[in-house]
Design brief:
The chain is mainly alpha-helical. It has helices spanning about 1-5, 10-20, 20-30, 35-55, 85-90, 100-110, 125-130, 150-170, 175-195; strands spanning about 75, 95-100, 110-115, 120. The longest helix has 25 residues, at about 150-170.
Length: about 200
């Protein structure tokens, strides 16, 4: 109970409501986690479950690795949480079921998907790392079809997340990657004109 006295009333309420152990609450007191942040984390977990359930209504496996065991898949957002409105945050078509090793480069903008069913690799991605996760970086990878709404979210991901990662890398290594990025951007501009 000594740990309860050092916590704010909000933390104590959250501790009782969520069944958090005394050891965990003591750890929170030591690292001084803000009660508001703790409350949002506790409330966000059920929404993540709702989102994954909605993604599972559309997707059933990781499009790159083929893994279909749900215990090894995460629901990854194409349009990030902070860029989405409330409807988009929970829309299953805004997500892909990915293994954690594939989710990480997708989330960071190293890989993405074209609406034409192909895997896209950022020109600034570290290819040996992607290859170690099982991504074929040498050939064309067909990942299967998408719904119209999924293509819209994937367009956002490609134009905002993937290109943002490429532009960020350009700032640090302009002379080394400027030409591949320009060629890559031209390719997407040409593809957009053909649609």
């Amino acid at each position: 109970m000594a740990a309860d006295q050092s916590l704010s009333p909000i933390s104590v309420t959250l501790q009782r409501a969520s069944g958090i152990s005394t050891l965990e609450s003591e750890a929170r007191a030591v690292v001084n986690i803000q009660p508001e942040r703790t409350a949002s984390n506790i409330l966000a977990r059920p929404r993540q479950g709702i989102f994954k359930q909605r993604v599972m209504q559309i997707e059933w496996r990781c499009r790159i690795t083929g893994v279909h065991n749900l215990n090894h898949l995460v629901a990854s957002r194409c349009k990030p949480w902070h860029d989405s409105n409330n409807e988009e945050r929970l829309n299953g078509e805004n997500g892909q079921l990915l293994t954690p090793g594939i989710d990480h480069p997708f989330d960071r903008g190293s890989i993405g998907f074209e609406g034409s069913c192909r895997l896209v690799i950022s020109p600034v991605a570290h290819l040996p790392s992607l290859q170690r996760t099982g991504i074929d970086t040498r050939g064309v990878v067909n990942v299967g079809g998408f719904t119209e709404r999924q293509r819209q979210y994937l367009d956002f991901h490609r134009n905002s997340v993937l290109l943002r990662a490429a532009r960020y890398a350009v700032v640090f290594a302009k002379d080394q990657i400027r030409d591949p990025v320009d060629a890559w951007l031209e390719r997407f501009d040409t593809a957009a004109k053909l649609r």
